[in-house]
Amino acid sequence: MIINKEQLVKMAQEREQELIKLTSDLIKINSENPIGSQREVIDFVMNYLKESGIEGDEVKANEEFPCILAKMGNDLGPSIILNGHVDVVPAGDPSKWDFDPFGGEVTDKLILGRGTSDMKAGVAGILFAMRLLKESGAEIKGNIRLHIVSDEESGGQFGTKWLIEDGYGDHADACIVAEPTSNYTIEIGQKGSNELILKAYGTPAHGSLGNYKGDNAIIKLSKVLINIGMLHEVKGNYRDDQAQALKNSKYIASNKLDMPGIENVIDHVTASVGTIQGGTKLNMVPDYCEAHVDVRLPVGVDIQELEEKIKSMIEKSGVEGVEYEVEWKNYGNSTPMEAPIVQAIKKNAEELWGIEVLPAYQWASSDARYYREKGIPTIQYGPSNTEGIHSYNENVDIEDVLNANKIYLLSLCDLLGVE
Length: 419
Fold this sequence. Notes:
- By secondary structure, this protein is α/β, with parallel strands linked by helices.
- The protein has 2 domains: 5-190 and 332-415, 3-Layer(aba) Sandwich (Aminopeptidase), CATH 3.40.630; 192-246 and 257-326, Alpha-Beta Plaits.
- It contains 11 helices and 17 strands.
- Strand 1 (56-59) and strand 2 form a beta hairpin.
């Protein structure tokens, strides 16, 4: 019997309660990062794969942050990676939640709990898609490679970053990261995230003589930081074939964030002073102070132009003895709009939701960049209610979960030759 796409969608519809339960079960496992362990949730996923008839392997650089690799299919066509992280940010103060953050409660329309949107609903969607394909016996032309990782919320040192650096991301034709987006957005690119360190050097003295003696490093650095907005003047450089995605991105940012001028976050450098440390004792004029600045780079930014702007910012302060340190590692990256993975997700999402779905750039960053840096066309698309992500009362719409699963399933069919 030859299984087609329509039959697979019917299977998904008939078994929707399985997907809802899978999402809820994942939520019930506390996998906070960095304060907890991902051992229990990884064991759960390994068991789920085994029950689905899919062979998986555990790999790890750290015992508390294991990852899972699995593969199904053959080498007769494209290789598609499905990526998802199972760690979640800490739930924080329990009294600020209206429900148990690890209760996995299901209402008429919502699934409630920490990690529902970021991103256990997405993980459930890709796992269930693989299970349906495996159990159906559908003949796929190519293979699906699953990357379930532990350490996304703390930077990927033991997660996707480690996997890719260890060679597990080589030779793939596309990658779907099931991170939260919205039903009308496919994220095809993102800004690069880097750390700028500003250092001010002064001269110590007794605090009682501070107005007359010594050179206060904290005050010196504050005169520089007041001009941090100068870095926001530096823009990215976009090719003609990136113009539509840039336009989409600005439209989405303007509507989603609803703040005057917020659309500029997409194609301009942003710099946020995250921490500042200086001084050793109250009654001493501090002779050293440093600030760590979160700098996000748009696609195509000119690093030389940005460094000149940093120097100008320091010079404008009128103080001496201020230096900066930065190692530009992460740059803005993108996948072409015409890539088959983008077009497959777009077509199926639009048909299922009955709305226009816009390929766009993300103003933040995620694990997707590691695949793009390897030349793998990569997109993010996943179910979410964004207002609860990294906050209290996180939840996800059941309809979003069910539809995302069908979109993954149909897109895999299109890419892997299932008629």
